[in-house]
Amino acid sequence: MEIPVSGFMYHSDDSDPQHSHQLFITRWDGRPVPAHIHEFRGVTSFDVGHNHRYVGTTEPAPSGVPHTHRYFTFTSVDNRHRHEIRGVTGPAIPLPNGGHYHEFSGFTTVDGDTPHKHSYSGRTSS
Predict the structure, then answer these.
(1) Span 4-31, mean pLDDT?
(2) Domain boundaries, the chain
(3) What is the pTM of this model?
(4) In terms of C-beta density within 10 A (0-12 exposed, 13-18 middle, 19 or more buried), how is residue 57 classed?
């Protein structure tokens, strides 16, 4: 029996020498697979005399199953430079009235006239 499946693939950023991709299924047996995204925003830590703001949208993930989201954005330009932010959220945290959010945290890339990085953390929208 054949089941038609459609979707798209993401390049994996891991360091696996075999090189891999992440498959994201959008239709299964002719039926759409619900997906969703979250917004995220925040302010980095204060380091080397300044901080940065950031805002972005996660990559899609399937609804109704345990999941995480990949995210990527650039910070605001402050002190004549910006940083890159990327990572994977934590698992979904259910809300009492339905829906969920994800926590995220990490460190920016190292940039600036005085090379440095910032920490960041927060919660996605629900």
Answers:
(1) 68
(2) 1-33, 34-123
(3) 0.78
(4) middle
